[in-house]
Specification:
Blueprint: H1 3-9, E1 14-23, E2 26-34, E3 37-41, E4 44-46, H2 53-65, E5 67-81, E6 88-101, E7 111-118, H3 119-123, H4 133-142
Parallel strand pairs: 1-6
Antiparallel strand pairs: 1-2, 1-4, 2-3, 2-7, 5-6
Length: 161
């Protein structure tokens, strides 16, 4: 196998972030079109190159909902094989509090709308949830999962601590 083919054959998981944004008993969700079907998810997306995880969570929430949020805790890290594309996903789920909303901000492609739903309303969407991680992260938050944000460390451009 050539070195280029070997490099292409290296498995790499999708690294994603998501925000559980609570307002009383309601949670910020997105209604999105995924492969021709309507799905419900927390504001979530992929980590970009050279981006801190917490910054990715703030960016994705703003892009998908128009809400500026402040992350307060890391809820957990979830490893899952996506039924959507069959590849491995490592998802960092954050808790965040809403700060402000820009209703005029255009939302990401595929996002129909942002909405606030209770846990029961979210669970009622059943098969239309984007993944089982949607309820898993809310339930972890409700069960008291709260890791400090300083549990995450970042060294830009290969810098050492």
């Amino acid at each position: 196998m050539s070195p280029a083919a070997a490099a292409d054959a290296i498995w790499r998981p999708h690294v994603t972030v998501a925000c559980v944004v609570g307002d009383g008993a309601r949670y910020l969700m997105v209604e999105e079109e995924v492969n021709g079907r309507l799905a419900y998810n927390q504001p979530a997306g992929h980590l970009e190159d050279r981006e801190r995880l917490v910054d990715a969570a703030v960016r994705e929430t703003l892009e998908e909902t128009g809400w500026t949020v402040q992350p307060t805790h890391l809820i957990g890290v979830h490893q899952w094989r996506s039924t959507e594309h069959g590849e491995g996903v490592i998802r960092f789920s954050f808790a965040a509090r809403p700060l402000s909303h820009d209703p005029e901000r255009p939302l990401d492609t595929g996002i129909r709308r942002a909405l606030w739903l209770t846990r029961a309303e979210i669970a009622a969407h059943g098969e239309r949830l984007r993944s089982p991680l949607v309820l898993e992260s809310i339930d972890a938050w409700l069960a008291g999962a709260r890791l400090p944000l300083d549990a995450l460390h970042w060294w830009p451009d290969g810098a050492t601590p």
